[in-house]
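Field log, afternoon session.

UNIT: design team B
ACTIVITY: writing a sequence onto a fixed backbone
BACKBONE:
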């Protein structure tokens, strides 16, 4: 139990090392079966996805401090909803946890400067697309967000990197970028954070 708590606490402490890494032209990324994220400028595996050169873009959502104790409590509080949504959408619950941790820090009342709302930071039009009547309702928000992520995975042939990039920047941004990770600062920082959260969540689940 103590080890599990330490692993959960580590979910909120990794960002400086992973998210701060610069993304340069000719950088490729993939997540292996062990949950390890690989970066290279010489791809030797067909699973690598190219990240486009990053251009400057103001940060959309300011970073906010996260209390580790509150984070653990929120993870436990919303775990039944997340597990149910993951099962219904045929996703790994650890992936849904990872997206929520990065998107909102498990805050169901979070609202971004672009108008994204709730645990999975759904835009109102996305909520309407999946029949959400109240974006602040945790169950509706997580179920809709999970189904949206599932649909993105189908759209991008189960490419997790492109699907997460589309979740953050929009599917059209990925398509316009030639089915590559868009050159947006937020997206190229977001992707490694979610992947690392996902790795940590899988470890905690074990």
């Amino acid at each position: 139990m103590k080890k599990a708590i330490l692993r959960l606490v580590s979910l909120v402490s990794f960002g400086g090392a992973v998210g701060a890494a610069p993304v340069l032209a000719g950088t490729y990324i993939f997540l292996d079966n062990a949950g390890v994220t690989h970066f290279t400028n010489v791809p030797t595996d067909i699973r690598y996805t190219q990240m486009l050169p990053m251009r400057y873009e103001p940060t959309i959502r300011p970073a906010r401090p996260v209390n580790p104790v509150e984070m653990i409590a929120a993870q436990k509080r919303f775990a039944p909803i997340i597990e149910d949504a993951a099962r219904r959408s045929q996703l790994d619950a650890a992936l849904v946890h990872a997206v929520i941790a990065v998107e909102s820090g498990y805050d169901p009342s979070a609202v971004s400067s672009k108008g994204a709302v709730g645990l999975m930071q759904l835009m109102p039009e996305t909520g309407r697309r999946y029949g959400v009547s109240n974006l602040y309702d945790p169950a509706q928000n997580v179920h809709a967000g999970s189904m949206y992520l599932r649909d993105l995975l189908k759209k991008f042939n189960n490419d997790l990197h492109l699907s997460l990039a589309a979740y953050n920047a929009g599917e059209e941004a990925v398509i316009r970028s030639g089915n590559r990770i868009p050159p947006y600062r937020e997206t190229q920082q977001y992707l490694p954070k979610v992947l690392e959260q996902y790795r940590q969540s899988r470890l905690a689940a074990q």
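LOG NOTE: Confidence is low (pLDDT under 50) at residues 1-25, 54-65.
NEXT ACTIVITY: expression trials, pending approval
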